[in-house]
Every structure is written in C-alpha cells, then in structure tokens.
Fold each of these.
Amino acid sequence: MSGTCHRCAATLTGDEKAICMKLISRNTREFYCLDCLGEKLGCGRGPIEEKIRYYRESGNCVLFR
Ligand SMILES: [Zn+2]
C-alpha cells in the first residue's frame, strides 16, 4: 500500500489513508492527502477533517483506531 499522496506525493498519515478508503473506495489504490482529497471531492479539507473526527469519536469504524 502506498504511503504517499497520489497527486502531490506528501507522506500520508493512517487517518488520511483511512478516510480515502471511506470516501473513495475500500479497495482504492490511490490515496490522497487531505488537501488533495478535498480538492478532488470539491469540498475542501474542512469537511474531511470533520469526518475523520466523527469516525474517531464514534469509535465504530474499524479503519479509525
Ligand atoms: Zn496531496
């Protein structure tokens, strides 16, 4: 599994990879940093950061531990 952003080659955190699986596809081979993912989805990074926080706090997603 690649550990860098598909677009800007930034090093990714576990959270960033996890949210890519959530928002793109569980089987995605392309991972993006929050900035590039936000741009790709057209929503900016803010809502994505909120989703990460939500999944972490809800504690019921296996991708966020
Ligand atoms: Zn990037």
Amino acid sequence: MGFLGKVKILEKKVLQDDVFQWIVERPETIETLKPGQFFNFTASSTGYPLLKRPISISYFDEKQIEFTVKVLGTGTEVMSHLAVGDEVEIMGPLGNGFDQGSFHRVLIVGGGIGIAPLKGLLESGNLSVEQTDCILGFRDAPYLLDAFQKCVAHLEVVSENAEGYRKGFVTGPLEEHLNSGVYDMIYSCGPEAMLKQVAKTCNERKVPVQLLMEEKMACGVGACLGCTCKTKSGDFGFKHVRMCKEGPMFYGSEVIFDA
Ligand SMILES: Cc1cc2nc3c(=O)[nH]c(=O)nc-3n(C[C@H](O)[C@H](O)[C@H](O)COP(=O)(O)OP(=O)(O)OC[C@H]3O[C@@H](n4cnc5c(N)ncnc54)[C@H](O)[C@@H]3O)c2cc1C
Ligand code: FES
C-alpha cells in the first residue's frame, strides 16, 4: 500500500559537500518495497518549490529506508538543511523498480548519483556477490565505494578528474567487460548521456540491460504526463510512456533515445 505523510529523519550522513544520506523510519503501512523504486519528497514547508522531488531508495529493511541525495537546485538544497529528528513528507513507493531474477553473471554500471539505487539493488541481497561485478563512474571524487566493494566480486572505478582512478567514462570498461561474453544481465543508472551509450553497447551485443531512467517529474503518479519517455511499441513504431508509472526501469532494447 502507498504512503503519503511525514516520516522522521533518524540518521543523516554527509558524504561530500553536495551529497548526503538520510535514513528515515519506514511507515508500517508500506508492505513491499523494491530496489529501483522511488519516493516523492515535499522539499519545502513554505510551498516553494511547489513540486515534489523524486529520490530513489538506496537501501531499505523492515524498519528503515535510506535515501542518497545530490544537491542540484532549490529542492535538494532545502532538503539538505533538514536534520536528525526533523520530519519530511514523502509519497511512495512509486515506479516499477528493477526486475530481479536468477542470472549467471551480472554487471552493475553506475554513474554519479545514479549509483544510489544500484546500492539499494546490491544491498537487497538478491544478487550473489561472487556472480556480480560493478563499474562506477564519477566526475570528481568517488563516494560509497566501501558499500559497493562488499557486495561485488570485482569493482572498477573511473573518474573524469579525481587522481588515483582510471580516467574517463564507464563506457570504456563496459566494452571490455562485455567482450568477455559472460554477462547475462546489466543494471544501469546514471546521466542520460551515459545510459544512452550503455544501452547502445549492450543492444549491439544483445545483452539485456535494465536502465533506471531519470526525467523531471511533477505528479509522480502518472497523471500529468510530465515525464514521458519514447519506447519502441505502438501502432507507429513508437509510444510515449510515463517514466513515473511504467518506469523508471526500462529495458535498453525498448527505449528510443532522442538523437
Ligand atoms: C525516478 C527518479 C529517481 C531519482 N533518484 C535520485 C536519487 O536517488 N538521488 C538524487 O540525488 N537524485 C535523484 N533524482 C534526481 C532528483 O529528483 C533531482 O536532482 C531533483 O529533483 C532536483 O531538484 P532540485 O529542486 O534540487 O533542482 P532543480 O532546481 O529542479 O534543478 C536543478 C538542476 O537539475 C536538473 N534536474 C532536475 N531534475 C532532474 C532530473 N530528474 N534528472 C536530471 N536533472 C534534473 C535541472 O534541469 C537543473 O539543471 C531522481 C530523479 C528521478 C526522476
Ligand atoms: S510525473 Fe506526472 S505523469 Fe509522471
């Protein structure tokens, strides 16, 4: 059952100047949660910004839900000032979340704050550590590496600017990993340009990839049509679907990225 109401912030961690984590109490009425689902946050008590802000689950258990947030604009800035003991209004869980199954070998590909829902997927315990590898890419200094390291057999980290890591984007290591031919499921989340390239690389090799897509959202429940994504279906070879309702997870083989 969905929940709309206030929850208390139980813990707060600052991971970097502009990245923080909250653990909030899990409302009892939320029976099931799935990695890849998200909640809509009311980011203000004053009415501005008006629209709720979608944030993915980065971990959950019976009692708590964790969110990892990068400060981008007004909404996330307002959220970053809330402290332990404060209450925040949330609505959710929303969206379809990741499909989970039994796979021979899995590759996780995350970029920037897109690593947050992938952490939730790994920490759900549904993927075998020995059969899961991971590539993470950051523009600057990485974060949350310890959390990923303990959930995967092999972790590769790339950064555009930080010293001590392989330089560049996730796409280089992705091609190298896929050339091994061992992966039968890829999970990915990150900036749109990265997801487009990840989808192309996986589609060319016919390796299934689940993409957790991002779009600016308004209602979050499928009513306003403010978050559409183009997919390969329908009478004319394409169809606009709502990321908040039919997504945010789509298979790479079904998404049409704008040129
Ligand atoms: C399903 C979903 C799950 C998400 N999960 C997380 C998460 O776990 N952690 C997290 O930090 N962020 C997540 N986001 C992104 C987050 O919702 C936005 O960063 C946030 O709404 C920005 O709000 P703001 O008021 O701070 O910035 P705004 O003032 O609204 O925007 C600031 C800048 O960010 C850009 N922007 C706004 N929204 C998005 C978006 N959805 N995608 C890309 N760019 C955007 C704007 O174009 C602008 O340049 C998620 C988004 C979606 C759709
Ligand atoms: S945000 Fe309104 S339909 Fe998706």
